[in-house]
């Protein structure tokens, strides 16, 4: 079973001239815009996709502990230089968090 986005189904219902112009293909009665989706479907390559996903997740998780807390918080307050005003709504507060594994979050 192939799940096809509604956009593709609606696109298939367009006139043949529009399909022919936009895709640069010969639009016939048997034209199926989902054919490319079926041909290039990631379902046929699930093993490789799973490996790539595992590698990505493991590289993201290296050195991170689920209970890791920030070792310190550093606050920076910057005043808007374009329109200096005593109004506190024009003040911008920026902060950075340095985690225990040395990554900076801003």
TrEMBL record:
Residues 37-49 have a biased composition (Basic and acidic residues). It comes from the Bacteria. Residues 30-49 are annotated as: Disordered. This is MgPa adhesin. It comes from Mycoplasmoides genitalium M6320.
